[in-house]
Structures are given as structure tokens and as C-alpha cells.
Amino acid sequence: MTHDEFNHFCGSLPATTYVMQWNHSHVWKVGGKVFAIGNLGKSNQATYTFKVSEQNFVFLTEHSGYQPAPYFASRGMKWIQQIDSTKDTFEALTYYLTQSHHIVSLGLTKIKQKQLGLDLG
After folding, report:
1. 46-51 and 79-82 as β-strands: parallel, antiparallel, unpaired?
2. Where are the beta strands (DSSP E) in 9-59?
3. What UniProt keywords are attached to this protein's entry (predicted)?
């Protein structure tokens, strides 16, 4: 997935906002809370960071191409960084980005969810 594809996909999710921050990272938020980050890793390869469930955190840390996200995971948060963005992981990445958006949305107040038009039923 390229950064353009990443930005297009994240922008297609409900009630998202975009900002470039943290050393030129593509940061996507829902309700003011970060759910996805795209940046360049070692060797200028695209990397993508997202929040996951406890189960997916364990699952992904055991698979090549993923690692606990620097900074986030070291503070006990369940965030993963995809460090291998080859085409065969496009479908998986869109799944995890969607899940991250959902997890972060659930953490918003009910009032904020309603203001943003999020149907999390």
C-alpha cells in the first residue's frame, strides 16, 4: 500500500480528519483521537501503525512484517506497526485500519459518537 492509497482509504472511513505531524507522518484521527499513522521507516519503506485488539496484538507480533509499534507499545498500548507493506498485505491492512477506526471510535463518549454520526451499534 502506498501513502496515497493509505490516505485515500483512511479518508473514506466515517468522521475522519487528517494532519501531517510528528516528523512528516500521515496521521488519521476520529473524534480527535489517532487511529492510524503512515510514515517512512528504515530504508525509506512505508510503514503503517494502528491500534488493535489484545488478540490481534498477540497474533501480529508473531508474524513477520509486523512489530509492536515503537513508542505506543512500549507504554503498554496495543498498537502494531506494519513494516512490510507489500501488495499481498493490502487486504489485511485495510481490515486492521478499519478495526483500529472502530476501536478508537468506541472509546469516544456517546455524545461525541452521536455528534460525528458514528453508528457503532
Report:
1. antiparallel
2. 16-21, 25-30, 33-40, 46-51
3. DNA-binding
* DSSP tag of 75: G
**E strand or H helix at 16:** strand 16-21
One-letter amino acid at 88 equals D
pLDDT at 59: 93
Q: Do 36 and 48 touch, CB atoms closer than 8 A? A: yes
DSSP 87: G
Distance CA 75, CA 106 (A): 21
- The torsion defined by the Cα of 16, 22, 24 and 25, in degrees rounded to 10, comes to -40
- 87-112 pLDDT, tens digit per residue, is 667 889 999 999 999 999 999 999 99
Q: Which helix (H) or strand (E) holds 93?
A: helix 90-106
β-pairing, 46-51 with 66-68?
A: unpaired
